[in-house]
Amino acid sequence: MLYSAGMKAFGLALVMLVVCGCSSTLPSASHIDKLRVLAVKAEPPEVAPGAPSSLSALVVEPLLPQLDASVANPTVSYLWLACAIPPGASEEAPCGLGPSSQVATDATPTSLPLCKDQPGASLCEIGTDENVSYTPSASAVGKGETTQLLITLVVADNQSAFGCLIDAATSGNQQPHPDHCVVALKRLVVTAPDYALADGTKPAPNHNPLLTDLSLVEDSDLGVAAALDADGGAFDVAPVKDAPTFELRASRAADAAEQEPRFDQNSGKLLGTQYEALTVAWFATGGKIDGGRSLFVPDGKDSGGHPCATQSDCPTTQPITVVTTKWTAPDPEMLTATAPGGEVRLWAVLRDDRGGVSWLQGSARAK
Asked: Which of 59, 105, 110, 263 has an alpha carbon within 20 to 30 A of 336's alpha carbon?
């Protein structure tokens, strides 16, 4: 998840300046107009102590470079950090950040231990590659326990990621290039092999849910699905009032919705199992997405006979397998401003409610 609002003092300043890059007119959250981290994935998302997890991220930028003199030849750099979540913490701060943090007071790339050398360190550097591997300490949890560690990803396209981290930790509300320095967070679940629920059963480890396809269907009676594969879909270019509208579809794998423990909300008593809640977030470099988030709702009715609106309404009913949203193709002016060669890129990011994530990318071109 991105470092989100609700933090106080330094944290709030970091949200506004590093992640948001706030301005007086905010574009839709689904529109990619600057450096963004749309998702961070751990594969697998739940590991045993001493077992590795591969970390990757969906880092995107607009297809046309931003008109910013500070970035001559944008190249994204990465910095991955790991740290323990403080006991009782109600809000998360990125690893190493804060006005009195180690990064703020001892800001050199060599000041942080490498996780491969000191996996039990309270703060360590995983690596600086686009994709990295992280192995929690063999003593990360005790016998029969489960916990979560915090992974922090820093990306920058106008400086080194470590420089971005230093700026974020030391500059307060003067971050010089907020659209080019992004901090994102990910929780990694670490569970002992002998962990069990109150009734003695061992819950199955979580897996990342998968999408199987991403496609466009023109919003007409004769609309035919076009898979957004290597060849991409196609759209006509027309003025705003005549711009064609499409249905953007994403399908999940049959086993994407896993079973998780179900507890009574009042007593906390274990009631059995329920299906995970699955959602898709939509993004595009051009055009307009009308509905940036879709739910894989259960295909059934709740105890009152009403259609299930969320997974919690019908926890033991499987969710649907396809979700949709509306995408309006860019008009000529937007196409010129955002789509070199007439190409628009689109993404669907699938998440479950236990930290699992995956995504698909597609493209569509002007005819």
From this structure: 59
